[in-house]
Amino acid sequence: FISNYLILKELKPDMVFMYNDCWIINTSLSIACEKLDIPHYYTEQSNVLDYSHFDSNAIWYDGDINKKELPEWNIEKERKLNERLNGYLEKYELGVASMIGEEEKISKMSHNRKFIFVPLQIMDDSKNIKYSPLIDNMIQLVNLVIDHTPKGYDIIFKRHPWEKYKKDAIYYRCLKEIIKIAKKHDHVKICRYESSQSLLKQCSAFVTVNSTMAQENLYQARAPMVLLGDDFVRGWGFSYDVNNIEEFPIKLREALDKGVTPEMEKKMKQFLYLYFFEYIVKGTYRIEYPILDKSGKVSEQVIKPQIYEHIAEKMQIELMEIKKRKENGFKRMLPPIKKFKCMIDRSKIPNYQGVVLDAEFKGYHPKTHV
Predict the structure, then answer these.
(1) Residue 141 burial by CB count (10 A; 0-12/13-18/19+): exposed, middle or buried?
(2) Domain ranges within the chain, ordered by starting residue
(3) What's one GO BP annotation on this UniProt entry (predicted)?
C-alpha cells in the first residue's frame, strides 16, 4: 500500500485502470487511489482489450457498470455486513457439507450419451444484471433447460469457477435448490472440475445467458449455441438467439437438428476476423458502427451486420490461420505481427475512409493488459 501510495502521489495520474480489484496488489492500489482522490476503474474478471472504450454504462463488453447507479447496491454498510455475517451462519444450517457430497455423487455420472452443455453463471455479475432480460437466476435457467430438452439427450450443468469464493447464504440456497432439482432427473448432471473446452467440443448444443464461454466456443469448439442474453456475440448469424422464453424450445430444437451450418461456420470465422483485427484495435461498442466522411466526422451510423455483409466475401480469413491455431486457445490465437493490411473491396462500403480496418501491429498479443 505504501509503495503504491508514494508512486501515485508522485505521478499524479488523471485516473487508474485496473484489470481486477480482487487481487491484493489491486486492492491496495484502489485504497491508495481513494486516499488521494484519484478516479479508479476496474473490470470484472475477464479478458481486457489493448484499447478500451468507455461509455456511460460499461467498459468494453465485460466492463464493470457503475454499481453506485444501481438502487440494489445503495444499502447501508451495516446492513450489508450483517447480511454477510448471517450468511456464514446460515450456510451451515443449510447443510452445505452433505449438499456438496450429493453434488459430487451427481458429478460422477457418466455422459456417454449425447448431451447439452450449460455453464452456470454468477447472476450478480453486472453484465447479467444489465444484459439478461429473460433469465433472473440460475434456478430459472436450470428448470427451463430441463423442461424443454428432448428425450435422448443428457444435460450437463457446470458450476462457475468463481462461485467457490461466494460465501453468502443466497448462493448456497441457489446451489442447494439446483442440486435438489438435478437429483430428480437421471439425465441431468452437475459437474465442477471437468474441462469446459472438452465439454464444448463434445456437446450437441451449448446454452448460455451471457457467459464468456460463448466467445471461447468460437475459437475452440464451435458448438451450436443457444443464447438467452444480450451477449456480445449475439445477432451475427452464427447462433440461435432467443428473443422470448416461449421461443427457447424452438431454438434449442433447431440447434440440435441443424447444428452449425456451413454458413454459420463461415460467419464465425468472419466474426473472429472482425473481433481481432478491427474491434480490438479501434473499438466499436455493441451495435452501431460509425462511417466517417472526409472531414473525419460521423456521417451516419450503420448497423454492424450490414457492414459485415459488405466485407464478408473479401476478407482473407486465412491470414489468422484460424483452423491451425484454434486448438491452442486464446493466448496463442495470434502471433506477433509487424504489419498487417486488411484486404477489402472498399467500393462496397459507402463513404468508407479506411479509418478502422487498416492497422499496424507491433508485438500484439490479445491478452496483454491496458
Answers:
(1) buried
(2) 2-70, 77-260, 267-359
(3) polysaccharide transport
Question: Rounded to the nearest 5 degrees, what angle is found at the Cα of 176, between the Cα atoms of 174 and 182?
Answer: 105
> Is 218 in contact with 208 (CB distance < 8 Å)?
no
What share of the chain in percent tops pLDDT 90?
Answer: 20
Instruction: Report how far Cα 1 is from the mean position of its chain's Cα atoms.
Output: 31
Tell me the torsion sign for CA atoms 251, 254, 258, 261. negative
Residue range 77-260 in CATH 3.40.50.2000 = yes
Place of cell 508512486: 7
The C-alpha cell at 355 is 479509418
Of residues 145 and 269, more confidently modeled? 145
Q: Mention every residue, 6+ apart, whose C-beta is less than 8 A from residue 90.
A: 169, 172
Q: How far apart are CA 52 and CA 370, in angstroms?
A: 8
Q: What is the pTM of this model?
A: 0.54
Residue 130, helix vs strand vs coil: helix
| Phi/psi at 148 (5° precision) | -115, 10
Q: Which residue has the cell 467457490?
A: 164
Q: Contact at 8 Å (CB) between 58 and 283?
A: no
Pairwise CA distance, residues 268 & 262, whole Å: 10
pLDDT digits (tens, 9 = 90+) for 315-370: 444 334 444 444 454 333 333 333 333 333 444 444 434 333 333 333 333 333 22
Distance CA 327, CA 220 (A): 6
What is the residue whose three cell numbers read 450468511?
87
Cβ neighbors of 41 (< 8 A, separation 6 or more) are 15, 16, 17, 18, 54, 59, 64
Tell me which residue has cell 462457475.
160
Residue with cell 481481432: 276
Q: Which residues partner with 157 through β-bridges? A: 118, 190
Quote the Cα angle for 182-188-190, to 5°.
Answer: 70
Amino acid identity, residue 265?
Answer: E
Residue 226 backbone phi and psi in degrees, to 5: -115, 115
| Grid cell listed for 92 | 451451515
**Distance, C-alpha 3 to centroid of its chain:** 34
Please count the residues of the chain: 370
